[in-house]
Amino acid sequence: MAGFFDTSALAKVYHDEPGADFMRNLVRNSAAPYIANLGVVEMYSVLSNKVRSLAISTDEARIVRSHFLSDIRKGAFRVVALNRSHFAHAQTLLERHGDSEGLRTLDALHLAVALDLAKRNLAEMLLTSDNVLLRVALREGLVAFNPSLAV
Q: Side by side, which strands form the sheet with 34-36?
C-alpha cells in the first residue's frame, strides 16, 4: 500500500533538506505515493520560495519543475483531484481543529484527501513535515510520519 505526501514531504524528493534521503528511498522502493493536485500547484510555490530565499537558482527551479512533471507523467506519483467531498471534509476539519490547533486551509484539504484514501484502503499513512498537520492527522486517527525526523 502507498502513502500520501503533502507538499512539505514531496518537496524533500527534489531538494536536499532533512528527510530527503528517506523520501527519495520511499519513492524508489514503494508503490507510487499519492499526492493531491493541490500539491502539484504548491510545488511551484515552494520552488519559487526557494528561488527568492536563494536556496536554489531560477534555472535549478526550472529543472526541478520539469523533473517533477516528468515523474508525474511516468507514474512516480498518483495525483488525486480534489472533489466536493474533500472540500466539505476540510471545512469540518477546520471547524474541529482550526481554533485549537491552528490547522490551515490547504493543510485541511491535504488531510481530507489523505483521510479519504485511508478510508478506502488506498494509502496507509500521511507523510508531512508540518507539525500542525501531523498532530491533527494523528488526532483524526490517521497514521502519520514526519520524514524530517528519519535518520
A: 78-80, 34-36, 2-5, 123-127, 144-145
The C-alpha atoms of residue 125 and residue 130 are separated, in whole angstroms, by 14
- pTM higher than 0.85 for the full model? yes
What pLDDT, in 10s, does the model give residues 124-146? 999 999 999 999 999 999 999 99
In CATH, which of 1.10.287.3510, 3.40.50.1010, 3.40.50.10280, 3.40.640.10 is domain 2-149? Answer: 3.40.50.1010
**Amino acid residing at 35:** I
Non-local CB neighbours of 32 within 8 Å, separated by 6+ positions: 2, 75, 76, 77, 78
Going by DSSP bridges, is the β-strand pair 123-127/78-80 parallel, antiparallel, or unpaired? unpaired
Do residues 136 and 97 make contact, with C-beta atoms less than 8 angstroms apart?
yes
Alpha carbon dihedral 134, 139, 144, 147, in 10-degree steps, equals 30
Which residues pair with residue 144 across a beta bridge? Answer: 126
